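hey so u asked for the seq, here:
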Amino acid sequence: MANSCPTLTIVVPCYNEEEVLPETARRLDGLLAELIDDNHIAADSHVCFVDDGSKDRTWAIIRALRESSGKFGGIRLSRNRGHQIALMTGLLAARGDIMISVDADLQDDLNAIKEMLRTAAAGADIVYGVRSARTTDTMAKRLTAHFYYHLLRLLSVEIIFDHADFRLMTRRAVEALRQYEESNLFLRALIPLLGFKTSTVTYERAERWAGTSKYPIGKMLALALEGITSFSTKPLRLVTILGFAISLLAFICTVWALFAALVMKATIPGWASTVIPIYLVCGVQLLCVGVIGEYVGKIYLETKRRPRSHVMDTLQPLLPDLDVEPAARTSHSENPSIFVPTE
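ran it, structure tokens below
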């Protein structure tokens, strides 16, 4: 008998998550069982943990989870490559008809997955999980986050407000994402470029269940800069405008300095010729060189064509053999690279 329900793969990037991972797995296992019993997803649906080069017992826990439940599998990267690359690796390796990415810290509401599946069944290829409020964030984080979203919109970067990386993607959307080969990843702006039918599901974001955030201020700023420089060339245009404006200001200051020196007799000799060039020209040059350098650096990294990551180890879910017609899994057989290799 053919299985008409889609196979769901939940992709969970992990970095030093030994404290929260057992509870995350317990909740995901229960969610999968409920969705399977309600005939929302196929019985071979599973979870794919992506260990992003953790230094703690994260991979050992993933191995133990795989032995305790056949619905858990894993990918272990050879070193820490960052959340975005770990997530991309998991999505491209996932073998489901539908992929849902969720963080391991349990801040995303897993119950929203049911609504995501219903929305996908209605025809959406991408479903974004959007926070209904940011009550768990500090005031400073809320203000900076909203400022950043508005800044990206101002720079013509398409992005979903209050959306992180909690989203559903169909097989068609993931295969389209596979064609984007850049090394500098910012999936929150990259995925809207795919152009498929999208929808949103709102949820309340909870406090982190255990452990500490793996996104300190330095990584958050780096990700923010990645989003700007990877999807907009407007900063380069702003540099041109700034250069013109500063040149105009320098001209006005020069006229004022000459007037003060020749007419008002109120300046120290040599002041104008020293201060104006130093404070106006040199500062602007350093700023412009820095902005241009960001783009040149990205060109440098992309032209090397280095692989995003290397997989050290994989664990295939111990799924039951199901009576499934070949036509139901055509996308898998046509593209065997989407399978996670066995041990």
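The two ends are 30 Å apart (CA to CA). The chain has eleven helices and eight strands.
lmk if thats what u needed
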